[in-house]
Amino acid sequence: MSFLIGALGIVVVFGVVIFIHEFGHFVVAKRANVKVERFSFGLGPEMVGVQWGETRYCLAWIPLGGEVRMAGETEYEEGDKAPSAPPDPRSFFAQSWQRRIGIVLAGPLMNYLLAFVLFASVAYLWGEPRPSHEPVIGELMEGYPAQQAGLLPGDRIVAVAGAKIARWEDLAGEIHRFPGRPIALEFVRDSETKTVQLTPKADPVTRIGLIGIAPETVYHKVAFFPALRRGAEQIVGWSLFTVHYLGLKIVRREKPDLAGPIGIATVVAKATKAGLKDFLYLIALISVGIGLFNLFPIPMLDGGHAVFFLWEGIFRKPLHRKIMERANAVGLALLLGILLFATYSDIQRLRPEKEPVPADGEAVHAVPRP
Predict the structure, then answer these.
(1) How far apart are the C-alpha atoms of 328 and 368, rounded to whole Å?
(2) Cα–Cα distance between 350 and 328 in angstroms, integer?
(3) What is the distance between the alpha carbons of residues 352 and 191, in angstroms, rounded to a whole number?
(4) pLDDT band for position 336 (50/70/90)?
(5) Could you give the CA distance from residue 237 to residue 204 in angstroms, rounded to a whole number?
(6) pLDDT digits (tens, 9 = 90+) for 40-62
(7) How far apart are CA 151 and CA 196, in angstroms?
(8) What is the pLDDT of residues 217-249, one digit of tens each?
(9) What are the residues whose beta carbons fall under 8 Å from the beta carbon of 138, sequence distance 6 or more?
(10) Directed axis angle between helix 97-126 and helix 276-295, to 10°?
């Protein structure tokens, strides 16, 4: 049963995010009076469909994307020129370069709109998540001393190495003092006080002690308009964080930690079982990721198409056909390379001998995570 719930969650998440993306292209194309021949959820041959007016609405067999096929979108002139306006005034390339940019960017922008609505809704309905200052374990990192010693979420730590604990900051500070040295940790579970012996791991950079625990999350009520502001802050914050992270990895010539289809599916399955709040928040996160990724100026992506059309607007002529073909070939190779690398990273994370690393990179945040 849990497998079916997880599988259904994966279908819903990707279905919603992909549909919203393609719906953005579809709506703006229709508003621009461009003839849309096919609106498909999924790629490949049609599984089931219906003709409504001039558009064929259908489900395709490969649920890894979607398609909005517009009249004249793939037409090229014979010769050396890039696509030019075909005779049909309602075809895609008959539109001005500004309209074409608007159509291709509508997909990513709809992903951002979906993320904004979901982030704001979560903040308004459930409140704003903040780490608790109570010394109560909210999360355990698998393979770390706390989990190996038998501690559980909900355990309240009352003493570390004989020192009384009143706040989470006290708990983190004490544990940080004992890297690689055994300590006695006193905790309360079901009104019963117990003691356990464990040895904090030494952080390889800061040399502080870590046992792999995180505080509980508490939710503070947020009014309607502040919730809208939180929604906007979330999409901006996650986008800037992603760009900064990737830029830092490029500058340092380090491999980025990317999640591929396997990793995303695993996270989605877990969020599905965790509850509606986590599920909606994850849809918002994935929608931000899809929207941002499609804005990158990579050929084959929406951002790459927008760059081609912007070039046409600046230089008053479209790019050479062969240049566009080569650019698309390079873009496709790059996208396939990213997919393969991300999938390889997913498989590496699934290997049992690979030691997990805390999500915060073993760093101390505003609320320390020992």
Answers:
(1) 46
(2) 33
(3) 35
(4) confident
(5) 28
(6) 888 788 899 999 989 999 988 87
(7) 8
(8) 888 888 999 999 999 999 999 899 888 877 887
(9) 132, 153, 213, 214, 215, 216, 217
(10) 160
Does the residue 368 lie in any domain?
no
Residue 158 lies in a domain: yes
CB 176 within 8 A of CB 163: no
Quick count: other Cβ atoms within 10 Å of Cβ 233?
14
> How far, rounded to the nearest angstrom, does the alpha carbon of residue 191 sit from its chain's CA centroid?
40
* Domain at 142, CATH number: 2.30.42.10
The domain tally of the chain equals 1
State yes or no: pLDDT of 365 exceeds 60: no
Instruction: Give CA–CA dist 306/311, Å, rounded.
Output: 9
C-beta neighbour count of 162 within 10 angstroms: 9
Is 322 inside any structural domain?
Answer: no
CA–CA separation, 369 vs 168, rounded Å? Answer: 9
pLDDT digits (tens, 9 = 90+) for 262-299: 666 667 667 666 778 888 888 898 899 889 988 988 88
Per-residue CA distances from 306 to 64, 100, 243, 295 (Å): 22, 8, 19, 9
* Terminal Cα-to-Cα distance of the chain (whole angstroms): 35
Residue 203, domain member (yes or no): yes
Distances (CA, A) of 221 to 181, 233, 279: 41, 17, 19
The Cα 16–Cα 13 span in angstroms is: 5
Neighbour tally for 123: CB within 10 Å: 26
Determine the residue type at 134: E
- Sorting pLDDT into bands at 50, 70 and 90, what band is 180? very high
Of 286, 295, 278, which Cα lies nearest the Cα of 238? 286
Average pLDDT, the chain: 81
DSSP, collapsed to helix, strand or coil, labels residue 134 as coil
The sign of the torsion formed by the CA atoms of 72, 77, 80, 81 equals negative
Structure tokens at 360: 């915060």
pLDDT band at 319; cut points 50, 70, 90 = confident
For residues 172-186, give the mean pLDDT.
Answer: 93
The domain in which residue 173 lies consists of 131-219
Q: Check residues 102 and 350 and name the one with the higher pLDDT.
A: 102
List active site positions: 22
